[in-house]
């Protein structure tokens, strides 16, 4: 029995079988697991060749042999220490290993920097010890080696990190050299491969002390991985872009308070209309508080039209918003006109007031003529008769008519009554209102001036009354003139002419004291004309715009002269905004009805054939195909919105966005979505850096 081995006893069944995992090899387990928790290894007693008789003795013998074997292994293995003789795997040593690995991992210059730090440390320590510089340097290097062996994963990870971090600045500083410039993929790959090979050879040479084989190996690996840099970077960049876009889109939709799919549709339309998170709120602010996103571009209007054509809550949301806004258009325009140009006036009422004031001068004129003296009008009559003999045509006829007015009634005797001169002057004023012949007008004006001079000498106080009466007459003319400033015909003044009339009109005439009210009457006439245009075109905002704003810049300049540039600009801006509002309503409702008809035709099998990218290429080449592709994409979204597969939640969420609900949240969501469709900036440099350093000696 004593001659039998432990394996023989087990085979014969003399002792219980070993637990799972035990392997008997020469009486000791070569892969014996540690004792189970709570198991106490009993002293097997003096060494003897007698085989154990019980399972407990067997277990004790096995675990005792195992413990002895492990203790021997630990005694033979020398523990790693750092440069201070402390364990090389403590926290401080791990940190030093990581920092040293980062430095050493930098391509080409890393080993030089690491060696420089070791030499500097040795020189410092040697100055304060009995050891020589070489002895200290050897000890420092041995300690670093021990730390690296004790922390291999930290060292390798730090070296890879240092390699990537050291290469990224070079890639960003000279992207063309790493295949990130222009040109074809093959060209960029070739450039990147050449650069990678050069870096690999140089780095391997530094690390191997100039070993040619190592340099050739480094050049091959660097060139190979550099060659694939542009392609791999493109693939990984696309994946990173998709991942980042998905995260951004979900976050942005949540911030905007929108359904994610609806936010995607909305953002696509905003982008296609040339807007972003900064321009959209600015445009809405410029267009006034009633503006909505659907006013800002055709793609947004298409989406609104699709929703307006699809039964459901979204349809009601769009249509009700546009209808309510359109109903208040005239009120908003009227309020702006009142605020910029003053309250409306009725020309006939203003003119009646002017005429009433003129009539009040009649008693005053009669009073001044009571004290008038006879006046010799023969010089005036002689001058007229001389001109009559010289003139011909309408001028002669008009002047003979005036000369006859100076005679005593029903006689050929020249009157000396100043009142006759006054009445003749009044008659000339009446003739001038209807006369069109230039020569006749000039002749009448000259005759009137002679009579006015005679009246001044005959009735001195008359000029005081003339000044007041003339001011009222000028105001009446200015009121009529103001109603012509927005005309486009020959009677309308040019901007420069109107400016001159205003400047001249404000000046007092004759014995008048203080500025004239002519500019006021001009502005009242223009204000009345604007009110007439608004009243006769209340249901046609486009016509209202055309008549008030005109075709060019003249109307803006004229109204600026009468009311000031700021007020004119404000009026024109409001009119333009209302025109856009009306266009949006017309476009959305018109497009929605058209879309509904097309959908019904397609459903009944009567839809027309499609005109897609292929047909567009035939008609317009590459540009036509590109335009068609963009239009098709927008049309696909419209079709999706009208499809039964798109939920009401998505439609309603998009409808609220298009009419501008929660505008601040919407803009914030667009801000969060900015950058979608672009690869994160560091993806390409990191990918290239990883590839360029993938096969170097420091990472093997």
In terms of structural class, how would the helical and strand content be classed? mainly alpha
Number of strands: 2
Helix content: 55-70%
Sheet of most strands: 2 strands, antiparallel
Strand content: under 5%
- Helix count? 30
**Taking all residues together, what is the mean pLDDT?**
76
Instruction: Please compute the radius of gyration using only Cα atoms.
Output: 51 Å
Low-confidence regions = 1-6, 24-32, 39-44, 599-631
From the spread of the alpha carbons, the general shape counts as elongated
Strand order of the largest sheet: 1-2
Distance between the termini: 56 Å
Secondary structure layout:
Layout: H1 6-12, E1 24-25, E2 28-29, H2 55-76, H3 91-105, H4 110-126, H5 133-150, H6 152-173, H7 185-208, H8 212-227, H9 229-256, H10 260-272, H11 279-286, H12 298-308, H13 313-327, H14 329-341, H15 347-359, H16 362-370, H17 378-390, H18 394-405, H19 418-434, H20 438-458, H21 462-482, H22 495-505, H23 518-536, H24 541-549, H25 554-563, H26 565-603, H27 613-642, H28 648-658, H29 663-673, H30 683-692
Antiparallel strand pairs: 1-2
């Amino acid at each position: 029995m004593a001659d039998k081995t432990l394996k023989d006893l087990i085979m014969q069944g003399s002792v219980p079988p070993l637990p799972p995992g035990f392997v008997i090899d020469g009486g000791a387990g070569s892969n014996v697991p540690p004792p189970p928790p709570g198991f106490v290894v009993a002293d097997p007693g003096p060494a003897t060749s007698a085989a154990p008789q019980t399972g407990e003795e067997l277990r004790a013998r096995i675990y005792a042999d195992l413990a002895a074997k492990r203790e021997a292994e630990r005694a033979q293995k020398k523990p790693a220490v750092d440069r201070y003789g402390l364990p090389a795997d403590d926290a401080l040593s791990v940190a030093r290993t990581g920092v040293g690995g980062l430095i050493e991992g930098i391509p080409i210059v890393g080993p030089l920097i690491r060696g420089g730090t070791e030499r500097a440390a040795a020189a410092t320590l040697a100055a304060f010890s009995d050891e020589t510089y070489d002895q200290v340097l050897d000890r420092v290097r041995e300690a670093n080696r021990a730390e690296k062996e004790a922390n291999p994963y930290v060292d390798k990870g730090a070296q890879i990190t240092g390699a990537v971090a050291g290469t990224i600045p070079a890639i960003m500083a000279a992207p063309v050299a790493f295949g990130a410039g222009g040109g074809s993929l093959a060209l960029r790959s070739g450039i990147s491969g050449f650069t990678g090979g050069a870096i690999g050879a140089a780095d391997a040479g530094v690390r191997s002390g100039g070993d040619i084989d190592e340099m050739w190996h480094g050049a091959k690996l660097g060139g190979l991985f550099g060659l694939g840099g542009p392609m791999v970077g493109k693939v990984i960049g696309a994946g990173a872009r998709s991942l980042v876009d998905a995260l951004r889109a979900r976050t942005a939709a949540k911030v905007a308070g929108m359904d994610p799919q609806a936010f995607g549709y909305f953002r696509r339309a905003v982008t296609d209309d040339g807007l972003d998170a900064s321009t959209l709120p600015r445009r809405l602010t410029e267009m006034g508080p009633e503006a909505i996103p659907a006013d800002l571009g055709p793609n947004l209007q298409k989406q609104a039209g699709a929703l307006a054509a699809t039964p459901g809550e979204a349809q009601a949301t769009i249509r009700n918003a546009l209808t309510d806004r359109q109903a208040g258009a005239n009120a908003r325009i009227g309020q702006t006109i009142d605020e910029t140009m003053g309250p409306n006036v009725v020309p006939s009422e203003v003119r009646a007031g002017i005429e009433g004031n003129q009539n009040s001068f009649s008693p005053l004129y009669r009073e001044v003529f009571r004290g008038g003296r006879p006046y010799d009008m023969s010089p005036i009559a002689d001058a007229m008769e001389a001109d009559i003999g010289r003139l011909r045509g309408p001028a002669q006829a008009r002047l003979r008519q005036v000369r006859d007015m100076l005679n005593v009634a029903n006689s050929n005797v020249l009157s000396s009554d100043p009142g006759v001169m006054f009445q003749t002057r009044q008659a000339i004023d009446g003739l001038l209102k209807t006369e069109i012949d230039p020569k006749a007008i000039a002749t009448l004006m000259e005759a009137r001036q002679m009579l006015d001079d005679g009246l001044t000498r005959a009735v001195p106080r008359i000029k005081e009354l003339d000044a007041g009466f003339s001011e009222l007459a000028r105001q009446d003319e200015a009121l009529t003139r103001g109603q012509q400033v927005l005309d486009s015909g020959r009677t309308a003044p040019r901007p420069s002419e109107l400016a001159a009339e205003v400047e001249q009109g404000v000046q007092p005439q004759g014995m008048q004291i203080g500025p004239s009210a002519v500019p006021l009457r001009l502005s009242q006439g223009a204000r009345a004309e604007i009110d007439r245009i608004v009243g006769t075109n209340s249901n046609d905002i486009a016509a209202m715009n055309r008549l008030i704003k005109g075709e060019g810049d003249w109307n803006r300049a004229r109204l600026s002269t009468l009311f000031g540039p700021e007020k004119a600009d404000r009026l024109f801006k409001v009119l333009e905004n209302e025109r856009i509002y009306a266009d949006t309503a017309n476009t959305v409702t018109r497009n929605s009805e058209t879309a509904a008809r097309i959908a019904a035709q397609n459903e009944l099998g009567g839809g027309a054939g499609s005109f897609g990218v292929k047909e567009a290429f035939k008609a317009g080449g590459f540009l036509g195909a590109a335009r068609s592709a963009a239009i098709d994409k927008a049309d696909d979204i419209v079709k999706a919105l009208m499809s039964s597969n798109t939920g009401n939640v998505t439609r309603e969420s998009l409808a609220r966005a298009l009419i501008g609900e929660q505008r601040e949240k919407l803009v914030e969501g667009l801000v969060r979505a900015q950058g979608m469709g672009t690869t994160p900036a560091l993806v390409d440099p990191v990918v290239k850096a990883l590839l360029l350093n993938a096969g170097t000696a420091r990472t093997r």
